[in-house]
Amino acid sequence: MTPTSNGATGAPGARADIDAAQDVNSCGVRAALTGGRTFAGVRDRRVNESQNFVWTNLSTHPGHPLNTVTGVLPCAAAVNAHGGDDLIKFDVITGTGQVRETGCLAVTNTHPVTLNCDSTNNTPIPWTLVTNQPA
Q: Tens digits of per-residue pLDDT, 27-81?
């Protein structure tokens, strides 16, 4: 059956997205977006660990689109992890195409693995605009 007319356009729904990376040596990481908030997740993959995710709210970090004056919320999230001691990067893109990035380190000497998303002076690593925004 072919519809004869379209219904009314509804209100925009809540934005949700998730991305995953498994190439970190002892853990899997996720970037999750829900209701405009961005979370970094880590799951310890070592033997005898619970395999539960531990989530860190990255929306509270300075520069997150939720906290800026633009009023434009992120609509997608991504994670970039290469393992070792590299900074795990988390990115969001807003509905206007603005890309921002922050990072965390996997702390593998804890049980379970956790994320450290603070700078060396114990303040949250801020979200920054990436150089050369998409056109």
A: 899 999 998 899 999 998 888 888 899 999 999 999 998 876 566 789 999 999 8
- Distance in angstroms (rounded) separating the CA atoms of residues 26 and 46: 6
What are the tens digits of pLDDT across the range 83-128? Answer: 666 899 999 998 888 899 999 998 888 888 899 999 989 999 999 9
CA-based torsion, 128, 132, 134, 135: positive or negative: positive
Per the structure block, which two tokens stand in for 49?
Answer: 């660990």
45 CB neighbour count, 10 Å cutoff:
15
Tokens 């795990």: give the residue: 88
> Taking the CA of residue 54 as centre, how many other CA atoms within 13 Å lie in the half-sphere pointing to its CB?
18
Two structure tokens written together for 77 = 């999230």
Distances (CA, A) of 54 to 111, 113, 114, 116: 11, 8, 7, 12
Secondary structure of the chain: what % helix, strand, coil (to 5)?
5, 45, 50
